[in-house]
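U., I forgot to send this yesterday:
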Amino acid sequence: MIPTNEDEILDPVSFVKNFPSLDAFREWTKQAETINDLRSVRDAFEKAELFEHVTIIQVTIDEKIDTMLSGLGFETE
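Result:
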């Protein structure tokens, strides 16, 4: 199982080597259980200055929030 929180991802630079491509990393982010998990991971990647990965994580966070809001009847862009 791939770690999903900042405590388990001690070295984001090494961690990203587990993925053969950015698309594989993107798919992993979609499997995160909570938005808070993604936020913790995003913060760890931001500290490591892996900004391309930070952007992917943030897009996934935004998509999950949009999905939740639309499920509650709110319109999203």
